[in-house]
Structure formats: C-alpha cells, structure tokens
Amino acid sequence: MNSGQLAEQHARTYLEQQGLTFVDANVRYPFGEIDLIMRQQDVWVFVEVKFRSSNQFGGALNALTSKQITRIRLAAEHYLQRQKLNPPCRFDVIAMNIDEINWLQGCF
C-alpha cells in the first residue's frame, strides 16, 4: 500500500469510530474521484482524504483546490444518479499529517 491508500484506510477507521458507516471507496469516473463514501444516519458523506508528511507548503489542510472540489462534486452527483438516490449529503475533508487528523465536516 502507498501512503495515500494507508491514509484512506486510517481515515475510514477513524470515521467508523466516530459512528459513520462505510459505503464505498475509491469511486472513479473520468471526470472525478471520491476517496470515501460514508453514511451518518440518513446523510451520505463524500470524503476527500488529504495526507501530507509535513506542514511545508501549508500541509494537508491547504492541499484541496477549487478544481478538485468541482471534480468531487461532479463525481458525487454521478454516483447518486447511478444509484438512483436523492439523499441529503455533505462533503467532508479528512486532513492528515504524520501526527494529527482533522475532520472538517460540510466544508464544501
């Protein structure tokens, strides 16, 4: 496993410990990708996992671009349409460094 895959696994475990239910991972379309799909009761949570080994250049919290946000939103819309679902949903970010994890809920 590479560091990105390990970070996604760690993020999944962390979110499950917080009471979320795992739905899917690494959902890819030509126009975007979703790292994790979780559920928190009736809310579907699309999670982008960002890992940085240091805080140099702003660390994990500053690693998400507006282009990536657009691509994640498109992928989530497509996923829900393919599943014929229309649930309440939100977009979270798990920002991880070597020594900490930050869970930002509903951040875009």
Task: Give an overview in words.
By secondary structure, this protein is an alpha+beta fold. It has a single domain (3-104), classed as Trna Endonuclease, Chain: A, domain 1. It contains two helices and five strands; from the N terminus they run αβββαββ. It has helices spanning 3-17, 66-82; strands at residues 21-29, 32-40, 43-51, 89-97, 100-104. It has a five-stranded mixed sheet. β2 and β3 (43-51) form a beta hairpin. The longest helix has 17 residues, at 66-82. The chain starts with a helix and ends with a strand.
Count structural domains.
1
Span between termini: 29 Å
The helix-strand sequence is HEEEHEE
What would you call the quaternary organization? Answer: single chain
**Arithmetic mean pLDDT:** 91
CATH topology: Trna Endonuclease, Chain: A, domain 1
- Range of strand content: 35-45%
Shape: globular
The CATH class name reads Alpha Beta
In DSSP terms, counting alpha (H) and pi (I) runs of 4 or more, how many helices? 2
Protein name: UPF0102 protein Sfri_0388
GO molecular function: nucleic acid binding
Pfam family, one: UPF0102
Family: Belongs to the UPF0102 family.
Compact description:
By secondary structure, the chain is α+β, with helices and mostly antiparallel strands.
Key terms:
108 residues, alpha+beta, Trna Endonuclease, Chain: A, domain 1, five-stranded mixed β-sheet, 30% helix
